[in-house]
Design a protein that fits this description.
This protein is an all-alpha fold. It has one domain (2-77). The chain has 4 helices and no strands. Helix 1 (2-30) runs antiparallel to helix 2 and helix 2 packs across helix 3. The longest helix has 29 residues, at 2-30. It starts with a helix and ends with a helix.
Length: 81
């Protein structure tokens, strides 16, 4: 069961990573300041998401879609890992 949990975790991490890169690309396409703010300051990412949902919504949802298997994988691996 731990092997399946690890696989789920790493697949979810890759999907979340791709969503994060896509989010940063959307922020940098808006402007360099948005991109740098999202890269270095967490609250700026939330503000960018709210103000530019049309550009940042899909990447954000991809990140969430990656977080689900990551969480499931962590639960399957158990507390001893």
């Amino acid at each position: 069961m731990e092997v399946i949990g690890m696989i789920l975790f790493f697949v979810g991490a890759i999907v979340a990573f791709i969503g994060g890169i896509w989010f940063l690309i959307a922020a940098f396409q808006e402007s360099v300041l948005w991109g740098l703010g999202c890269l270095f300051l967490g609250p700026v990412s939330l503000i960018f998401l709210i103000l530019h949902w049309d550009a940042a919504g899909k990447p954000f949802l991809v990140q969430l879609a990656g977080a689900v298997p990551m969480f499931a994988g962590m639960m399957m691996m158990g507390p001893n890992v």
